[in-house]
Amino acid sequence: MISTLVATPFFGFMVSIGFYLLGSILYKRIKLPLFNPLVFAIICVIILLLLTNVSYETYNEGGRYISIWVTPATVALAIKLEKNFKYLKENYPAILTGIVSGVAFHTVLIILFSLLFRFDYPLAATFLPKPVTTAIAIGISESVGGLVPLTVAVVVFTGVVGALIGPTLFRVANITNPVAQGIAFGSSAHAMGTSKAIEVGEVQGAMSGLAIVVTGIVIVVFAPIGAQILQLLF
Fold this sequence. Notes:
Elements: H1 2-6, H2 9-29, H3 37-52, H4 56-67, H5 70-83, H6 85-116, H7 121-126, H8 134-144, H9 148-173, H10 178-200, H11 202-233
Helix pairs in contact: 2-3, 2-4, 5-8, 5-11, 6-11, 8-9, 8-11, 9-10, 10-11
């Protein structure tokens, strides 16, 4: 009976949704980045597959039905931009300068580290979309020839770390401006950073959501340039 259930597409789908909903409940009660629904679901699915010896291919028969919503989720980010456009209009010089320079610096660092540690092209390209949320990073990684599963892991890890240490860094660096805090959360820790930013304040949450969209637009421009440079070097 169990083996029959595992072999159906409903297994991967229900397992993913179930762990995500459980993570949502736990995160509301325990405000720790580890219990972020996305992180919690990923960890639980990995543990379940290891314990039950179920292959990724079997799980993905149902899990792929969730993946098809990545593109609509990416397009839906435009709603966040429209709702918070007034913040961009009021602070666009600082916001655009900070995000563009940050993405450019990130791209340069990826190229330098790839040379330093002798990454091959697919591995190097995997890290190019790291500054953006998963929905956008997957599409960019696919387009530049990166390793999509590893890109997802890197993006999630970045989000967890950013959400965890963000408030401490603000205190140490004496960053008190809510707009600056929100932009920092969204452009470095994406969706998970936005969850944390919403907890910190309304303005921080709005600016973080805006930063996700703007950073996504900027990285779409810079990632192909970085990929072309990597191709020339490798």
